[in-house]
């Protein structure tokens, strides 16, 4: 069972109380983007075996979107953090580095 | 309904107002506490005395609870205090149903139906928990160590009532928290 701590209400929410929102930290390409970057924004997603960053919504609780860093192999959760950011906070990255040295994900490592 | 090992009753109707805005604003806090007559709740908390109270719903929303027949008056009072402040205030009384679950084993009923940690050390009176009850959204808090107050949408009140009675049917006690 996957349990994530909602960073807004501090509740340990069960997976069934949450709605998955797919990959985190996408840059939304829009008017003015060239076709290649727009295509990759629309269709290309990370599909890692290991460290992954995702968006989740605490839909049966406070209703807020947040980010989660977790491992897709062991389901270990490294941490959750606010949605008001475009990159994972340093303490989350440091925690992952401690447990999965040499990790990388998209442009983060 | 068949025998139950805890008392389940649908109470109310209860007056409820959804108040959204900046929860750190003094004006907003004053409006809520002025009408409800209780302290402003912290994160995931509920302060409730008799039929009045305030429940923390999300980082920008609280639920103000009042007696049903005083809702019009209370709504006007809050609108007056909040005028000029960016906010949303809506009377949601008729969209909600309230249940009281009381008895020494009342924890078990909720524990059977929601994914919440209901251990007596984890869930204590004063906490407010929004969650799901089987397949529908619901929220509950504890009046005292043996009494739960639960709110859900009125459109699913029949479903919730059946769920609660079924989970409480006599002889189906698990005894995990004893």
UniProtKB/TrEMBL annotation, chain A:
What domain of life does the native source organism fall in? Bacteria
InterPro entries reported for this sequence: SoxD, SoxD_sf
Q: Cross-referenced Pfam families, in alphabetical order?
A: SoxD
Q: In its UniProt entry, what is this protein called?
A: Sarcosine oxidase subunit delta
UniProt-listed Gene3D superfamilies: Folate-binding superfamily
From TrEMBL, chain B:
- Which region is the signal sequence? none
Give the InterPro entries listed for this entry: SoxG, TrmE/GcvT-like
Q: What is this protein called?
A: Sarcosine oxidase subunit gamma
């Amino acid at each position: 069972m996957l349990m994530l701590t909602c960073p807004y209400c501090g509740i340990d929410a069960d997976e069934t109380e949450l709605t998955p929102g797919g990959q985190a930290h996408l840059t939304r390409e829009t008017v003015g983007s060239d076709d290649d970057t727009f295509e990759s924004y629309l269709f290309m997603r990370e599909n890692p075996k290991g460290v992954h960053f995702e968006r989740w919504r605490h839909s049966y609780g406070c209703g807020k979107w947040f980010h989660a860093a977790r491992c897709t192999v062991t389901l270990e959760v490294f941490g959750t953090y606010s949605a008001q950011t475009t990159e994972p906070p340093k303490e989350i990255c440091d925690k992952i580095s401690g447990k999965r040295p040499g990790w990388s994900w998209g442009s983060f490592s | 309904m068949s025998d139950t090992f805890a008392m389940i009753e649908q109470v109310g109707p209860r007056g409820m107002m959804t108040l959204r805005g900046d929860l750190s604003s003094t004006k907003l806090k004053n409006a809520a506490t002025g009408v409800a007559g209780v302290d402003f709740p912290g994160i995931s908390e509920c302060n409730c005395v008799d039929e009045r109270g305030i429940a923390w719903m999300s980082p920008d929303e609280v639920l103000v609870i009042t007696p049903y027949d005083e809702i019009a008056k209370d709504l006007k009072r809050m609108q007056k205090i909040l005028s000029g402040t960016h906010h949303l205030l809506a009377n949601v009384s008729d969209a909600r149903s309230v249940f009281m679950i009381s008895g020494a084993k009342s924890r078990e009923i909720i524990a059977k139906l929601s994914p919440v940690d209901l251990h007596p050390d984890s869930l204590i009176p004063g906490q407010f928990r929004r969650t799901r009850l089987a397949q529908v959204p619901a929220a509950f808090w504890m009046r005292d160590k043996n009494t739960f107050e639960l709110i859900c949408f009125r459109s699913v009140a029949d479903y919730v009532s059946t769920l609660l009675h079924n989970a409480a049917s006599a002889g189906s006690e698990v005894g995990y928290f004893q």
